[in-house]
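User: Structure please.
Assistant: Input sequence and predicted structure:
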Amino acid sequence: MSEQREPHVAQKAPYAVEVEAGKKYFWCACGLSKKQPFCDGSHKGSGFAPTAFTPEKSGTVHLCGCKHTANAPYCDGTHTKL
């Protein structure tokens, strides 16, 4: 697989997911994971790597689905411009 220049748009909307405070998560940055919005290792050879994050509080967060956010792993509304 050759290196990808742009991430694959998994969906043009954020993923609303429940997270647990203090637990480490890995957000898919390449858009190829079958376990969106989380990494399943599909990025291998793409030039992308997952973004690790640990929420400070439990609850619902909105993770970027278009993979073009400037505030990874969180949605910043960029999907509305794609």
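The mean pLDDT is 95.
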